[in-house]
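Page 42, continued from yesterday. The earlier attempt failed because a stray header line got pasted into the input along with the sequence. Redoing it now with the clean sequence only.
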Amino acid sequence: MSGHDALVTELETWLVEAALGDPDLPDLFAALCDGLRAAGLPLDRAVMDWPTLHPIHIAEELTWRPDRPLKHERYGRTAPASGVFLDGPLGRAIKSELGVLRRRLTGPEALVDGAVLSTLRDDGFTDYLATAVGFAVAKLRPAESGGYTGVVAGWATRRDGGFSDADVAALRRVMPLVGVSVRTALQNRLLANIADAYLGRAVAPRVLSGQMRRGDGERFRAVLWYADLRDSTRRAQELGADGYLALLNRYYDATAGAVIAAGGEVLAFVGDAVLAVFPLGDDPLAAARAAGAAADAALAAAEVAFGVAIVEGEVLFGNVGVPERLSFSVIGEAVNLAQRIEAHTKTAGAPALATAAVAAADPDRWAALGAIVLPDIAEPVALYARKSG
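This time it went through. Structure tokens are written below.
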């Protein structure tokens, strides 16, 4: 029985308890590394990598050192997948039958094969161990996650003589339970990532907290931002499906991207229209100004013509649909008004129009256009166009 056994057993119990909850991976990994050092392991550096399902990122990495803050990095989907998991000692541990790679970095048994190990040796490390645990998470496939689904860790020491046999045994012993805890955290993270990507930051927390019944919702006042692409039918016919899809994504980059950058929340992509809100919160003037700034930025960035309507009003934000298939959406007179105003941008020859409440909050941006009669709106509506220059 090694001198590590008692404390390693405590760490195993802690990892099981963490897996039964909702572990935060950075906190869990930092606590694990601190616990391993407390158990007597000469741990001077540790890295943990895992895949994720996210529209921007393909994998994440944590780097721990006892004398530095924990470092958390994310790999973008545009990076080569092989650079995430498959290159270097972590990749070789993944490919090995036992999920383990040992490399002594100094002494007569040293084997320094690769840039990562060479850098570690030059930084004073004497021994390195990589351990990997594969697992299935959601429906994530290896091709979508840098070639691997699981967790892989690299452990390094500066102690003369490197890791002892007991040290290596302890690290290999805890790794399966690290995998269980990471898998639990990843399931929760993937659920949140998917909800954020497809529902948005305003809707996702509501749905995940249980607002899933038809009719669940709330009323609030907000500045609505509604944009619609012009000549979309002609463009779709001219460009074909692939070309039109690429154009739509660039258009969304300009419009929805501007909304998000200004602090708004994109609620829906309705065909080639963008519906977004800027909640009034404690500063209604700021919401109107942010919406106007988003319109300016979107119109400056877009390569195609579109109209924008900005309206302040009360909306109902909640679940609509049938019990088996719901959509969390925003409805109300303000939404209908925004759509009618956007349609009028073509007639007015103005790419962006706002209502009086929005213009009053941001007078330097808007000029009076007059009271306009809009289809299906009972009373004429005072509209304002962007000032030139």
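Notes: The mean pLDDT is 84.
Reminder to self: strip header lines before submitting.
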